[in-house]
């Protein structure tokens, strides 16, 4: 079915973009592109709820928690905000609010481009700091947050509060950090937001302390105060840092005026702002306006338009990814956009170049969309002078010279040479990344250098670097301590759970989610290697294409040799996470929760169902197995009755829960 295929495609694209943005700290999609895909997915899921994925990105805030940090469950879920990209969408938001309440005020705050954080003070003492994570469970980064000089660790008053805010890196600190990284040969951070995110996820708080991070706080998820304005004033009275540029306005016209003022001033600010946050001021009125499953309806984030500039497209060159995918890249005359120098931009594929009618030597419009990714909008055709010419489509890999193959969609070109140096380097880089084996000290440039020097040619060679210690110490930029830290990180990575290794191996099409599904189901690498095509296709979220990809990987003698080497080198091949327990009432069933369950939070119910192999979905359809009904159920309860779906009331669900415990 075409609709299902598009929903699957959009889900995968958005999930990968979220992972790249939140966990790799390397955005790969503009805000405008993400928003367009996201809205298309919402429309398709609304029209076809039975085809929506249970864990669709429209229903969750983000995707996963980094395993090296202790997990923290937020007392109140950290929701994200819906976005408005123009004045029309902003006024639509205002009209929706007016349908629920009258004569209200807004509070306008600068949208700091940083990392969301939740702090807990007990008797005035900062005891915990956690990242947003998936909105329900975050990462404990207390040791790093305590290095922020502007954040008091003792409020001097015995107050117990949970407070939310944004950690950011000032522009001056960002420039200084990148200069130091360039000098040391490390990969540069793309922008202050990425730098802040990378800094707060350091295991060594000494590194974080040198990064000069800052913080503004703006929200109390549980308070007896009456308004957002009172909340901000109270935080200031406690001595907590609050952005000074807040404003209370009486209507949407005041909001627009505030936005226009700060749009002009944003470049002069000492930190990056990428928009304005608008909130209904009165907290009781916020409750009346309510929430969706993902967003508060009483607030919205207005995103500043992407900055555009004109420059020259001097060349189009081709790079090779770890899967062999050939990607054309625009080489641009350097130009400053949104505070940074733009020299290159991805052109995605040949069809993209054709559709945009791009020629080498064209004068082109570029946009730093979402203040992150440079994007070529298209040529300024009226400025063509006759020296422009089309790019020559390559037939051979630009690195190894082997012939290229078209993908099944006929859109992308691939180098199929498994020994291609570019593919090998990208595969090695992928293996070491945070969401894979998380080997600190093996960044992109160092992996490439080590490959070219002959230290590492395969994944297994990474675990033999201890035999090269003396040679590594002699390299420029390395010393005994840095090499020792690298070897410790490599050794520690041997203890990762199986899903990290599966993801790190780079099986085509298998992302973090797929790797977790496989590891949890088969528990050991040996079990997974022996699974048949038929069994794989029966697994939810795998399907025929991914099943074939998995079988192809494990039928390669070269891949089997690498896995055997990793075993002998002591790399863990076993799933270490929580295992699924079979239960006839829950396993392999789809659940919908509606209303309030008095004895258990919704996130706890989801965790329980997941533990026993069930799935929680948002919409009731003929494919739903059970609807759990609490106090004040919504229309989902009525729909379940019409469709004759099994219903568990609170008493029935509590009885099942007590038997499980």
Short description:
The protein is α+β, with helices and mostly antiparallel strands and 661 residues long. It has 25 helices and 22 strands.
Topology:
Blueprint: H1 2-22, H2 31-47, E1 71-73, E2 83-84, H3 87-98, E3 106-112, E4 115-122, E5 125-131, E6 137-139, H4 142-145, E7 161-168, H5 171-184, H6 192-200, H7 205-209, E8 214-219, H8 228-237, E9 247-249, H9 252-265, E10 273-280, H10 283-289, E11 299-303, E12 307-320, E13 325-337, E14 340-346, H11 350-356, E15 363-369, E16 373-379, E17 404-406, E18 413-415, H12 421-432, H13 444-453, H14 459-462, H15 469-473, H16 480-493, H17 498-505, H18 512-522, H19 525-529, H20 533-537, H21 543-554, H22 557-568, E19 590-594, H23 602-611, E20 615-616, E21 626-629, H24 635-642, E22 646-649, H25 650-660
Parallel strand pairs: 2-11, 19-20, 19-21, 21-22
Antiparallel strand pairs: 1-6, 3-9, 3-10, 4-5, 4-7, 7-8, 10-11, 12-13, 12-15, 13-14, 13-18, 15-16, 17-18
Inertia-based shape: globular
CATH class wording of the largest domain: Alpha Beta
Helix fraction bin: 25-40%
> How would you classify the quaternary structure?
single chain
Report how far apart the termini are.
42 Å
Do you know the CATH topology of the largest domain? D-amino Acid Aminotransferase, Chain A, domain 1
CATH H level, superfamily name of the largest domain = DNA ligase/mRNA capping enzyme
| Separate helix tally | 25
Low-confidence stretches: 61-67
Strand runs, count: 22
CATH architecture of the largest domain: 2-Layer Sandwich
Average per-residue pLDDT, rounded, comes to: 86
Radius of gyration: 26 Å
How much of the sequence is in beta strands? 15-25%
Largest sheet: 7 strands, antiparallel
Overall structural class, as computed from helix and strand content, comes to alpha+beta
Domain tally:
5
């Amino acid at each position: 079915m075409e609709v299902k295929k598009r929903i699957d495609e959009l889900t995968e694209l958005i999930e990968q973009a979220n992972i790249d943005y939140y966990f790799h700290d390397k955005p790969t999609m503009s805000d405008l592109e993400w928003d367009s895909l996201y809205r298309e997915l919402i429309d398709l899921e609304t029209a076809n709820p039975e085809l929506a994925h249970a864990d669709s990105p429209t229903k969750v805030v983000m995707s996963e928690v980094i395993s090296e940090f202790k997990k923290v469950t937020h007392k109140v879920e950290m929701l994200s905000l819906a976005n408005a990209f123009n004045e029309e969408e902003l006024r639509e938001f205002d009209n929706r609010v007016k349908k629920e309440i009258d004569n209200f005020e807004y509070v306008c705050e600068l949208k700091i481009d940083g990392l969301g954080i939740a702090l807990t003070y007990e008797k005035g003492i900062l005891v915990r700091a956690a990242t947003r994570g998936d909105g329900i469970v975050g990462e404990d980064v207390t040791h790093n947050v305590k290095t922020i000089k502007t954040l008091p660790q003792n409020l001097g008053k015995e107050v117990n509060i949970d407070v939310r805010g944004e950690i950011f890196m000032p522009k001056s600190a960002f420039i200084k950090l990148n200069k130091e990284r360039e000098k040391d040969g490390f990969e540069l951070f793309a922008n202050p937001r990425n730098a802040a995110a990378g800094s707060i996820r350091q295991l060594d708080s000494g590194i974080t302390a040198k990064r000069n991070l800052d913080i503004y706080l703006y929200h109390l998820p549980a308070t007896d105060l009456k308004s957002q304005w009172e909340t901000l004033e109270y935080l200031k009275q406690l001595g907590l840092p609050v952005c000074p540029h807040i404003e209370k306005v009486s209507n949407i016209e005041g909001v627009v005026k505030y936005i226009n003022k700060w749009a002009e001033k944003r470049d002069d600010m000492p930190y990056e702002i990428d928009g304005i946050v608008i909130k209904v001021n009165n907290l009781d009125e916020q409750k009346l306006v309510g929430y969706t499953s993902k967003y508060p309806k009483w607030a919205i984030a207005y995103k500043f338009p992407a900055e555009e500039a004109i420059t020259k497209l001097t060349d189009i060159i081709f790079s090779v990814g770890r899967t062999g995918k050939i990607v054309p890249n625009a080489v641009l005359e350097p130009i400053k956009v949104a505070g940074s120098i733009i020299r290159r931009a991805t052109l995605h594929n040949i069809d993209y170049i054709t559709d945009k009618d791009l020629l080498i030597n064209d004068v082109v419009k570029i946009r730093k969309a979402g203040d992150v990714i440079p994007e070529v909008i298209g040529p300024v055709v009226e400025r063509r002078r006759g020296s422009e010419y089309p790019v020559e489509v390559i037939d051979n890999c630009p690195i190894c010279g082997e012939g290229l193959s078209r993908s099944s969609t006929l859109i992308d070109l691939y180098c199929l040479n498994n020994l291609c140096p570019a593919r090998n380097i990208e595969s090695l880089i992928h293996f070491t990344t945070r969401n894979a084996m998380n080997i600190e000290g093996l960044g992109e440039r160092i992996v490439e250098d080590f490959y070219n020097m002959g230290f590492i040619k395969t994944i297994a060679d990474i675990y033999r670097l201890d035999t090269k210690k003396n040679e590594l110490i002699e390299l420029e930029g390395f010393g005994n301590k840095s090499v020792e830290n690298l070897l410790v990180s490599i050794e520690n990575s041997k203890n990762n759970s199986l899903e990290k290794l599966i993801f790190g191996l780079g099986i085509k099409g298998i992302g973090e989610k797929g790797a977790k599904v496989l590891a949890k189901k088969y528990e050991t690498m040996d079990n997974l290697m022996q699974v048949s095509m038929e069994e794989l296709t029966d697994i939810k979220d795998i399907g025929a294409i991914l099943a074939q990809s998995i079988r192809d990987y494990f039928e390669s003698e070269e891949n089997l040799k690498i896995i055997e080497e990793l075993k002998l080198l002591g790399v863990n091949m076993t799933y270490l996470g929580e295992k699924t327990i079979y239960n006839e009432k829950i396993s392999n069933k789809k659940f919908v929760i509606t209303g309030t369950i008095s004895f258990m939070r919704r996130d706890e119910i989801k965790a329980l169902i997941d533990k026993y192999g069930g799935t929680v979905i948002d919409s009731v359809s003929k494919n739903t197995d059970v609807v759990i009904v609490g106090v004040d159920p919504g229309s989902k309860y009525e729909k379940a009755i019409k469709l004759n779906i099994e219903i568990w009331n609170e008493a029935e669900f509590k009885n099942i829960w007590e038997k499980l415990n």
